[in-house]
Amino acid sequence: MATFNQTDADKRKQISVRGIAQVENVATIKNTFNRHLHYTLVKDRNVSTQRDYYFALAHTVRDQLVGRWIRTQQHYYEKDPKRVYYLSLEYYMGRTLTNTMVNLGIQSECDEAMYQLGLDIEELEDIEEDAGLGNGGLGRLAACFLDSMASLGLAAYGYGIRYEYGIFNQRIKDGQQVEEPDDWLRFGNAWEKARPEYMIPINFYGKVERTDTGRSKWVNTQVVFAMPYDTPIPGYGNNCVNTMRLWSAKAPQSFHLKFFNDGDYIQAVCDRNIAENISRVLYPNDNFFEGKELRLKQQYFMVAATLQDIIRRFKSSKFGCRDPVRTSFDTFPDKVAIQLNDTHPSLAIPELMRILVDIEGLTWEKAWEITQKSCAYTNHTLLPEALERWPVSMLENLLPRHLQIIYEINSKFMEQVALRYPGDFDRMGRMSLVEETPEKRINMAHLAIVGSHVINGVARIHSELLKITVFKDFYEMFPGKFQNKTNGITPRRWMVLCNPSLADAVCEKIDDEFITDLKHLRKLEPLADDMALLRNIQKVKQENKMKLATYIEKTYHVTVDPTSMFDVQVKRIHEYKRQLLNCLHIITLYNRLKKNPNMPFVPRTIMIGGKAAPGYFIAKKIIHLINAVGRVINNDPIIGKKLKVVFLENYRVSLAEKVIPATDLSEQISLAGTEASGTGNMKFMLNGALTIGTLDGANVEMKEEVGDENIFIFGMTVDDVTELHKKGYKSMDYYEKNPELKQAIDQIKGGYFSPWDQYCFKDVADALLYHDRFCLLADYEAYIKCQEKVSELYKDPVAWSRKCLLNIAASGKFSSDRTIEQYAREIWGVEPTRTKLPAPHEVPIIPKEEDKKKN
Ligand code: D6G
To answer: What totals of helices (H) and strands (E) does the chain contain, helices first?
Structure first.
């Protein structure tokens, strides 16, 4: 139990962001908390655990959401605005408690209430399991977008899957990754509301028949039910609460009826699991396509349930049609925008066609116009191994009617291509939705492009590359369809929540407008020489570093020096992200120190964290190598405190919230042209870290915003990479020319870091020497030199923190509010209202009948 100490007193002084706790509200929160402990948790304080307290607080905070949630939905029903539907197979939400308190503006009240009850709110917050329903950037982006859509007052919905197991927990055993199941629902989930009354049937398998009227009918299907679970998504300070609706698979009563009838009751009940496996587990791949049938089932399951729900809401909405029930689909694209987060939900296109043509009886042409106008597709990667191509045989078996529809879409599209480019059969082959070799497959990106009115990339360089590489032919044919929407992050979670002291320091100088309009951070720019502000920013960083150092000591039993430079690379482990390049730098520093122990050296703590897909052999080897290198360096008395290497086990949203505010140097070192945007880069910038990076993804725009002199850019550009490949890239040449590089690779290859097995990392070294797909060796020298400049600057704390401040000041563009405003205006055709709804205790939203009469 917490006692009052100096830190608590300090926290209480920080009132600019958190506000001043109202005495009446604190009393109400305490009462509600005690009521939930008693009635919901059925505990008294003699037997309550910290987890019970967490749940009591979660329910107390949730109570504050309910009225706002219902009223927001009533408001949408009354006003009937165009609805925005974000379809995503991933939502990497992390924790909900603190975010809800921040967005409702009740953090100081809850703080005070817990304090008065003798509880430490931070300890309770740390008990919440992350909702890890995503792999990395793509899933976290969806989560940031939900926050922004609610904060901008858009009538928006996130639709996805309620995976029973999210992204695995990563344990490091003997330096290697071991995956453990993420049983995140084990203790229950205070934030979701199951809605069994709205279950929806979903069909699989079966065959297609023709009816007398010439319509197609999908028959003899196997049915699985989709059960919705709703999670509230509160906007920041506007009393809007949107819905994230996640579907869970439920076997129908009749599942395997044959077995029931045959008397094998037990087997029949056990087999219900087969149907319910659809929503069991998140596929743990980032930027990689794994063509498994269960994954295809997940995609269709999500899309089919969602579209039924969208159409149900469209038909029952108030305006747009004279009939009490909307019967015409003409207004559908004016009332519905469907955003596809990558191709994962691209079956929405044939599914919407099936519903409109086979069920609603529209003509193909009308249905196609509606589908195209309603759908838009976001591309997230250029890596060929990530592009989804489903085998035709698999679609034919699981979704026979959809395959027919895809063929029909393709044949009409090929006619269009032939008309536009007569005789250009190569082009037709390249643009076809159907790939013929080596196996017949459907190219889902082509389907998504053809079925959408807008296609967007996620950073300027990425959107430009799409137009001249993978989607070149499509861009030539439909130049007007291609847009850019540079990614963003929500400043609520990524500053106010994770770095409240920094938010306070900023507030003190420029007020709190930046929280809802991040461009206001520019007002800090003229204060770059305000020594008091610089000192304050330094102090905040130092405190965050000390806090992280304590966490690292406690969690990994590694002692780090909080005055050393915290150099951090956290993201999924992938060859293109080049964690190995970072590793080569570490080894180089180590070798230099060993050779010359008394050389002047800027101490560094280098932290690397991230999960590898369980089936990604080299990525797992890279984790092993980082840990092996760390073991040698951290235990070498000659190195001492100068250099430490920490692998941050089980990197996830809640760990990011601890690490990012404590970082000095952010590593964004992917090969130019491979990282579509990155969003981690933006989080670090917003929290006052300096970036070392390549001209890749959003780094390009970060450089533009902050100025060349305030970011460490190194290495090849996209054009340099193209040139190099044209010339014929041989990594061996670089190895032979650079003695430090040669030494590092020889050590990896020869077992220097793996005394237990000389050949342990031979594969890794050979990959670099013989198939260095991401040109690490070509960028090595530039990277090392750039790192030297970083160290040089770190010696001058004032110059360093001045640049930190300028980075914070220039990070406004990277708010997901800006991104969402652009999606809203330029793709969805809706105006972000930023309306503030009245709070439940204020006037009613819907006038009661008698009030209406009075007016
Ligand atoms: C609110 C008000 C109610 C409306 C409902 C819509 O509860 O009148 O019917 O929202 O819910 P959805 O149809 O948007 O799921």
So the answer is: 36, 25
In a domain, 298, yes or no: yes
Helix (H) or strand (E) holding 226, with range, is strand 222-234
Enumerate the active-site residues. Answer: 380, 571-572, 577, 679, 683
Domains in the chain, number: 2
Q: Which residue has the tokens 């028949």?
A: 209
Domain harbouring 629, CATH code = 3.40.50.2000
For 466-521, strand residue ranges (E) read 482-484
Q: What is the amino acid identity at position 149? A: M
Same domain, yes or no, for 331 and 478?
yes
Q: What is the pLDDT of residues 450-465, one digit of tens each?
A: 999 999 999 999 999 9
Q: Which residues of 102-113 are buried (b: 16+ CB within 10 A; e: fewer)?
A: bbbebbbbbbbb
262 Cα: distance to centroid of ligand 1 (angstroms): 43
pLDDT band of residue 848 (cuts 50, 70, 90) is: low
313 CA closest ligand 1 atom index: 13
For residue 74, the ligand 1 atom closest to its alpha carbon is 2
Q: What are phi and psi of 194, to 5 degrees?
A: -70, 145
Question: Is residue 652 domain-shared with residue 766, that is, in the same domain?
Answer: yes
Domain-located, residue 365: yes
3-state SS, 513-565, equals HHHCCHHHHHHHHHHCCCHHHHHHHHHHHHHHHHHHHHHHHHHHCCCCCCCCE
Q: Ligand 1: which residues within 6 Å by Cβ?
A: 70, 73-74, 77, 313
Bridging pattern class, strands 216-219 and 200-204: unpaired
Q: Whose Cα sits closest to atom 13 in ligand 1?
A: 313
- Cα 74 to middle of ligand 1, angstroms: 6
Task: Report how far residue 299's alpha carbon sits from residue 73's, in angstroms, rounded to the nearest whole number.
Answer: 27
Domain with 559, as residue range(s), is 491-814
- pLDDT tens figures, 218-270: 999 999 999 999 999 999 999 999 999 999 999 998 766 666 677 788 888 88
Determine the residue of 68, 74, 310 to mutate for testing ligand 1's pocket, defined as the one with the most ligand atoms within 8 A of the Cβ atom. 74
- Which residue's alpha carbon is nearest to atom 2 within ligand 1? 74
The mean of the pLDDT values for the chain is: 95
Q: Is the peptide bond before 438 cis (omega within 30 degrees of 0)?
A: yes
How far does the centroid of ligand 1 lie from the alpha carbon of residue 336, in Å? 16
Q: In the predicted model, what is the mean pLDDT of residues 194-211?
A: 97
Mind spelling out the 3-state secondary structure of 85-104?
Answer: EEECCCEEEECCHHHHHHHH
Instruction: Please list, in sequence order, all residues whose beta carbon lies within 8 angstroms of the beta carbon of residue 618, skipping any fewer than 6 positions away.
Output: 575, 763, 764, 767
**The Cα angle at residue 151 between residues 121 and 32, in degrees rounded to 5:** 35
Ligand 1 atom nearest to 309, measured from its CA? 15
Rounded to an integer, what distance in angstroms lies between the CA atom of residue 845 and that of residue 855? 15
With beta carbons less than 8 A apart as the criterion, state whether 128 and 97 touch: yes
Assign residue 292 a region (left: φ > 0; alpha: ψ between -120 and 50; beta: otherwise): beta
Give 316 Cα–ligand 1 centroid separation in angstroms.
Answer: 9
Atom 9 (ligand 1) nearest CA: 77
